[in-house]
Amino acid sequence: MPRPKHILLVAILAASAWALWPSPEEMAGGGRLGNRPVAAREDKSGRAYHLRVAPGLYLPGTMPNNVGKPLEGLVRVAEKFEALHPDTYVEFVGTPAVREWLVTQLAAGQAPDIISVNVEDVWQDVQKGWYVPLDPYLAEPLPGVEPAMAGSRQWWDIFKYQAITRGKAAPDGLSYCLSYDMVETGVFYNKDIFERLSLSVPKDWAEFLEVQKRLKEADYIPLLVPLWSISDWGVDLVFDQLYQPLRAGIDLRQDPERAAYLEGYLDWDEICLLHRKGFFTRKDPRWVELWRILKEWRPYWNQDLTSADPMRLFVTQKGAMLWDGSWSVNRLARDPDIGFRWGVFYLPSIPASYSRFCDGHPMCVIGGSATQFTVTNTAFGDTGDLRTSERLKRVIAFLQFLTLPENADTVINETMSFLPNIVGVEPHPELLPFDEFLRRPYTTTKWSYTFDLRFNEIFMRMLDLYLADGISEEEYLAWTEKNLDAACRTVIARKKLDLTDLERRWQEKAPARAQMKELPDAR
Amino acid sequence: MRASLRAIGRSLGLYALITPTFFLLGVFAFIPFVWAFTTSLYDYEIGGDSAFVGLANYTEYLDDPTFWSSFTNLVLLSIFSVVTGVVFPLGIAKLIFSLSSDRARYVYRVVFLVPIVVPGVAVLMIWGGMIYGDNGLLNESLRLVGLDSLARGWIADPHTALWAVAMIGFPFAGGINILIFYAGLTGISESVHEAAHLDGASGVRKFFLIDLPLVLSQIKLIVILTVIGAVQGFQGMFILTRGGPGFRTMVPGLWMYFNAFSFQRMGYACAIGVVLFLLILAATVLNLKYFKSSEDLTAAG
């Protein structure tokens, strides 16, 4: 005869199991709880070529932003590819979005064959032989396209945003990343709140601050941003506003191959030389101005920059504007309960009336390539030699197949997050404003990606502390100076940089700099 | 000589039994330590070149931007952990031990032990999101009583982050520590209690004069374990703050992790690891040498 307490325990266990049991919808894979790592596929792992692909946002089975249906576009494309190559199986894997994981996998030669990784991250490690330069393949015709169509002469031609795509070549001149699609940032705003407060889209920085002031007075959080977007996008955009007018005197290297998109871009060696000359130090008034502008902007952001959820605050209408990437279009457009009208505009320029170092030129862009497919050292692991590897040929064949217009359309437009970078594939109509933004010139530099990760870590942390009034401006400037000193020493040693040639060009540009005001005390 | 060999021969089976343990200890503890020490003398970037630099990694660490702040944080957090890891569990153990009913003592022991089944990561996520979050328990409670101005990002605010991290685990009723102290209290001979009673000691006076000296062995153990845990552990900061804002919650272990796997500076990270090892060794030796246990006190009369 079982005791009552035993019966009670069994009943509690049974009730718990019943409560936790997934619904039939979830078990079928179509439930509301997305982010399943990989869509279920027939196991073909015994085939001669088992390719592993980490496709970033396009991972089958997941739902970007947890809205819509689980993605399946890549699976459909892979199955078409496998039908053409019966000895091949393409497996899609999710990867942690952390560099620690990537570095250890690459060092061990165990990374997926194709990964989506930011081009600037790749630049850090190109000297280690972890990535395959794609230039020889890009110069060849793209298999599968009709004669006279884009790509029939060379693979390069299939890419719509040519300047951006070619501009993503590493400083060594080689292209390691394939820009599959495009992304840009924008300020999403709540049209209903704007209408209620009689606000309009700001045309310059002063108006932008005024709009934010009015929103704050009306008890809204004016602008929702996470810390990383300020330390990455915010710093670069304001930096460009301040330093772009100096390009004639400080852009020391002209590279015709990259200039189409990266005209005037300052690479790490140029930054190092300029830093030696007193730029980006306390003696540089523009550098001081950069942090002043950000600090003056700070009161209009969400109080907690590190753990608040900006999107949640925006959709619950606690915040009136959200500075985010085009991937948020998917979240906002597909949410049936959004409850307000929204629009998007680009950050306005800073006029001379606001800062004497600015000339009011349009705010540059900082996005560009979104999914950047990179072929890793795993792809030629069969022979260890790029020239003889059969596996590498199959990996490249799959990458080429992905870029065929019909396949790119299937994969990219399913997510409503990015703009296709393939000729003949139109972006989703909701993303058209971002297409317009992308026509602007690119930033002068990207501080978050210029130096090693140690620099970036310290840079972001101290900016956070400075913006949160944790340290004074003087302390902050001392930190950035020391950090940049160390980063320059490291990059010069690791990349074995010789700045002699840049020094010569620096001297040549002296007449141009003589026309410029308030430069640091540089010789 | 022959006798020694015979003795070894007789014990061969026992040696065979402990050999696997020593082998595993060697592979997973001693060899990695030797490797770490050797690597700390090199400038070694994962996937890159490796160059012998002698003690340069150590001297660089002394000038590291995190050095003073991270060790200050470590000392503060260690002291806080030791105090809270001893005071609260000892008090709770004493209260449970003082209950007259055996059944009640058993129930309370179980109740205090149950929370340890919750994974540490889950506990941290709960604190980070549900308690310290923008709309977490703390901020919402403050708003409820009209103290909106005090609401803040507790782990994002440089003025509160370190204490917010330290307070995780409140009310510090660590189940294992309670059990250790409870075991210590039950180990005190009944005759000691009776003698104390006859001498007129009771209540708080008895606790400080009788119980506390006789559970010093347990306190010593918990101090050693807590200090080692504090020096080695960084998961709390890694999950909640990543050592920020700035370096306000940075600890040396976390900076070692960043250098090893994020910045790829394996040699430098190993140097930090060796420094931490030496620190733990010194703390343990000092603790064993100068911190008297109940046995030492008893032996000293």
The largest β sheet of chain A comes out as:
5 strands, mixed
The helix content of chain B is over 70%
CATH class of the largest domain in chain A: Alpha Beta
Task: Give me the CATH superfamily of the largest domain in chain A.
Answer: Periplasmic binding protein-like II
Structure commentary:
The complex is a heterodimer of chains A (523) and B (301). With 523 residues, chain A is of the alpha/beta class. Chain A is 43% helix and 9% strand. Chain A folds into 2 domains: 49-179 and 371-416, 3-Layer(aba) Sandwich (D-Maltodextrin-Binding Protein, domain 2); 185-366 and 443-514, 3-Layer(aba) Sandwich (D-Maltodextrin-Binding Protein, domain 2). Chain A is globular. The termini of chain A are far apart. By secondary structure, chain B is mainly α. In chain B, strands 1-2 form a two-stranded antiparallel sheet. In chain B, β1 (42-44) and β2 form a beta hairpin. Classes of the chains: A alpha/beta (523), B mainly alpha (301). Chains A and B meet through α4, α21 and α22 of A and α14 of B.
SSE layout and pairing:
The complex is a heterodimer of chains A (523) and B (301).
Chain A: H1 4-20, H2 24-27, E1 49-54, H3 73-84, E2 88-92, H4 99-107, E3 114-116, H5 119-125, H6 135-138, H7 162-167, E4 177-179, E5 181-183, E6 185-190, H8 191-196, H9 205-217, E7 221-224, H10 227-243, H11 247-250, H12 256-262, H13 268-276, H14 285-297, H15 310-315, E8 319-325, H16 327-333, E9 342-345, E10 368-369, E11 372-375, H17 390-402, H18 405-412, E12 419-420, H19 432-437, H20 447-450, H21 453-467, H22 473-494, H23 500-508, H24 510-514
Helix pairs in contact in A: 3-18, 10-14, 10-21, 13-22, 21-22
Chain B: H1 2-10, H2 12-39, E1 42-44, E2 50-52, H3 56-62, H4 67-98, H5 102-113, H6 120-131, H7 137-144, H8 161-166, H9 175-186, H10 190-198, H11 203-214, H12 216-232, H13 235-240, H14 252-262, H15 266-290, H16 294-299
Helix pairs in contact in B: 2-15, 4-5, 4-9, 4-12, 9-12, 12-15, 14-15
